[in-house]
From TrEMBL, chain A:
Keywords: Membrane, Transmembrane, Transmembrane helix. The chain crosses the membrane at residues 20-38, 79-102, 123-146, 158-179, 191-211, 238-259, 297-317, 346-363, 396-420, 432-456, 463-483, 503-527. This is ABC transporter permease.
UniProtKB/TrEMBL annotation, chain B:
It comes from the Bacteria. The keyword Endoplasmic reticulum does not apply. Residues 300-337 have a biased composition (Polar residues). GO terms for cellular component: plasma membrane. This is ATP-binding cassette domain-containing protein. SUPFAM superfamilies: P-loop containing nucleoside triphosphate hydrolases. It is a peripheral membrane protein.
Amino acid sequence: MTALTGTWGLVRLILRRDRVLAPLWVLPLGLVPISYVASIDGLFPSAAGRQGYADLSAHNAGFVALYGRLQGSSLGELVAWRGGFIPVVAGLFCILTIIRHTRAEEDSGRRELLGSAVVGRHAPLAAALASVFAAGLVLCTVLALGMIGQGLPAAGSWAFGAELAVTGWVFAAVAAVAAQLTAGAGGARGIAIGVLAVAYVLRIVGDVGALDDGTPSWAGRLSPLEWVTWIRPYGADAWWPVALTAGVAVALALAAAALSARRDLGAGLLPPRLGPPAAGPALRSPLALAWRLHRGLLAGWAAGFAVLGVVLGYLAASVADLVPDAPQMAEVFARLGGAAGLVDDYLAATVNLFGLIASAYAVQATLKARAEETGGRAEAVLGTAVGRLRWLGGHLAFSLLGPAAILAAAGLAMGLAHGLNTGEAARQTSRLLAAAMVQLPAVWVLAGVTVALYGLLPRLTALGWGAPVFCLLIGMVGAAIGLDQWLLDVSPFTHVPRLPADRFGVVPLAALSAVAAALTAAGLAAFRRRDLPIP
Amino acid sequence: MTDAISVAGLVKTFGPTKALDGLDLVVRTGEVHGFLGPNGAGKSTTIRILLGMMRADAGVARLLGGDPWADATALHRRLAYVPGDVVLWPGLTGGEVIDLLGRMRGGLNERRRTDLLERFDLDPRKKGRAYSKGNRQKVALVAALASDVELLLLDEPTSGLDPLMEEAFREAVREEQRRGDRTVLLSSHILSEVEALCDRVTITRDGRTVETGTLAELRHLTRTTIEAELAGPADGLAALPGVHDLLVQDGRVRFDIDAAALDPALRHLTAAGLRSLVSRPPTLEELFLRHYSSRPAPHDSSTPAPHDSSTPAPHDSSTPAPHDSSTPAPHVSSTPAAQDPSRPAAQDAPEATR
């Protein structure tokens, strides 16, 4: 097939370009469920305890909304159910990777360069899909081997891995279709992530509907995220939903190929729109420009955090319900200060997780400055009367204050959802807003790492992603696999006061802020002195 | 009045590669200065040093009387820059980019903006991602030309423009030139453009300045082609200093002659009995090819130029010479040597005597 000539070479190009980035999402997604095994096994060592936990969870709308329906009580089933959000994250990463290697390549003009070489018409799309499909298989293998290593049944472990892999594939194929529709990576990314969000909502509607009469509503059946729950790892270990989802993925991939043959390179199937012929009066500074470049990303993150905040906040009250039926936890329960203490502990852990995820946004926003530099757009601005620090300041406003905005969205949403649930909206909202805000100094440390890299070692700025991934691994797996305290202490999130469970402490926050300021200042000082642009 | 740009002995290395190796460049206030060199000659690096984006490892650079690194922001208010590879923000329209860059530079002449948009036939409502390379170039050009600044730094500004738009660009630069207070540094590959627009040129190669001066001065540095029909034999011509590539055939001679050796050679020809004589000054192409080719230059460029200030510049900028190389040059078409296909057609109005 001449249309696929050169695919293998392009696959190698993608692997070469993503040799750092791809492991950064594949490995954590595959390894995080290991921590669930240890924690669930620790909390409910006996079958009776797990049964009690499962009975409660299976009928709790909040848990069902977040993770899906629970239909068994074995350790494996509880772990797979608890990992119910991981397929969504896998889908998200697959979407981002596909767009990065298809539509973003066309935008940059590199696709055209390749297209003129001995490369078949469909080769770039096929190479991107093949690479992401392969990443799915690696993810499946990492997860399955990790689960088997924890002593879970092999058949269920492979089924669990396959669940993640095929979810990734189907959304990779959705992204491949979206990449044919719009003339621009941003629009394509928006469409594909929108499809993912709709699939998630449909899954929630379907599963929560099933709580009443036991039969899932029709809405869920439209969602690939629902299909993969039919696999039921460690329970049914059904492979037909794997085949179904993989088949849909292949069909979508073929559709994307057909669509790409019907359009011109660089163009989309949806017509481009014209914009204003002159700039509005506000568009006159590097900060205003940064706002234009960052606002879409910031709005997306804020919306995502708000939705997740509502779901996780709504769940908070039900955490206390679990306790009376789990006598094994009585001692822990007492130590935590009763039901209220347990709920606050859950809230603190959740807000800490939001802080970790917000640092990914901080890194992403900082990397925009680097993209502006390598893309040649920084030069145009720096050739005007805009100084270097003013230019970089526009972007750093988003890496430092953007996390404040999205954490506020998460804190407010959690507080409102939990507060309305418990009838103390004002109190919970202010408590959780404060809890979210104390994460900021830790987020700033990770942003500062990226700023320092950007100033001192600009070619390695993308390694800034390593910091949140490292902290996420430390935070989620570290305690479960018994890491040394000094290693846990490396993560700034270890030092954040665990509000609202613990008391507020100003010392760690001041220390973290000082570290963040020092890192940022080092990056800015180096940036002032270095050559621009460094490719 | 001080020079708008003065650069001496600039050195810049990137790892193992030496981008600039003692480059000199002087641009006088009010002139349009051509900055020529093959790819990788260091033109863009020089401009980035002048913009304070990069710091030179050695050498002196002065821009509008200031230090390009230390006074970057203040100096940038007085200049406009068009990068060689214009990249726009995919989500901003061309009009938004023009206004944004103009405002960040300190102001835009609205009337000129409207006028330039029309002349460059540019739709300012399109998003950055929808523009072709040429149209992106136009966005940057309009943003630069519509600013009231003293200095324009243009890095290969016409790459990607079609011939019609190139003419619009030339016209716009000529307007700047007529105002007299604007200085333009124009890095370019397009020789006809440089010939048509530039008062003086600097040619660089491998990060060094190899020639600088007016076009007339540069012509003196290189050889003139002489074709003559003689009454008698031209013995001894080959032995004259400065004569190259001599060809004798049926009483006709053809040779290249160094500018400094022109007078004795012509005396020799007159002594032999001249029947007809065609002298052709070097075209810019020949000039550049000689410097661009990697072979060591046959002519020692370190010899001081026999500067003749009375020689008129080949072009008066108000009456541009025709650049259409398809127009036959009548005075050479009759001589057999003119049919030599290896010679590029003369782009200048040659000085011819018969």
